[in-house]
Amino acid sequence: MELKDPLWQEICIEARQAVAQEPVMADFFDGAILSHASLEKALCFNLSQQMGSSVVSAQVVSDVIAEAMQKDPLIGERTRRDINACFDRDPACETHFMPILYFKGFQALQLQRVAHWLWLQGRNILALFFQSQISEVFAVDIHPGAKLGAGIMIDHATGLVIGETAVVGDNVSMLHSVTLGGSGCVTGSRHPTIGNGVLISAGAKILGNITVGDGVKIGAGSLVLESVPEHVTVAGVPAKVVGTPRESEPALEMDQYLSDKPVL
Fold it and tell me: Per the confidence metrics, is the pTM higher than 0.90?
């Protein structure tokens, strides 16, 4: 980026500190972070290294990512919010460079943002290639048609599935083995719409063309088959309202308790 980018400057400072602590990693951090002029360029390099294959080279993938980021600045803005979401919500995220280099939930999410841009351009063949490679490399399957907001944190991520017509709002947190899936063989909108600030705990399955309201907490292993009103906690198979979260946006706290305010 032409203007000073405080987040990128912080990432570079962290990378230099990491090299000072572990000099054997100097070449790694130089190639992955310090040799790049911007966050976007570093992402192009790091993501393409994982996505390249014998039939589509890392350079081709990098060029596609760069094109998407250049033509849709919202991708970069959302990426920055996703990095901050990881840093703020995941106690294991000690630096801002960790999601870029190590967290496959973050990496898969950024690649889906590129695939979604391709999908909107009618470049479905390439978008579906991205989806296939993301699934193969990261064990995360997000359809390029899914609409994902900003400030999303996907912790651990293994086994995550998000279907084509799913919509996910801003400041959402979800864990591994979550499914936002369809129900039946209907066409059109057939996947869930998730509101802002929602926490979806590990293993939860949300199926069908239903709506989960803002500020909802969904307990681990729950099966959600009906729409959920705003600011409640649901849990169970099938999921039922079991309480009210203390927080206005449970996703920001990542607290897995079910309820301290029972519904009367």
Answer: yes
Per-residue pLDDT of 116-148, as tens digits, reads 999 999 999 999 999 999 999 999 999 999 999
Question: Would you say 224 and 208 are in contact if contact means Cβ atoms under 8 Å apart?
Answer: no
Sequence-separated (6 or more) residues with CB below 8 Å from residue 44? 62, 65, 66, 69
What is the DSSP-derived secondary structure letter of residue 25?
G
What is the per-residue pLDDT across 2-14, written as a single tens digit (0 to 9) for each?
468 999 999 999 9
Instruction: Tell me how many domains the chain contains.
Output: 2
Choosing from 124, 139, 154, the residue where a domain stops is: 139
Which of residues 95, 111, 139 is at a domain's end? 139
* Phi, psi (rounded to 5 degrees) for 19: -65, -40
Q: Identify whether residues 130 and 151 lie together within a single domain.
A: no
Cα of 24 vs its chain's centroid, Å: 31
Within this chain, do residues 30 and 80 fall inside the same structural domain, yes or no?
A: yes
How many other CB atoms are found less than 10 A from the CB of residue 229?
Answer: 13
Helices (H), 90-201: 98-102, 104-120, 124-138
- How far, in Å, CA of 142 to CA of 87, rounded? 22
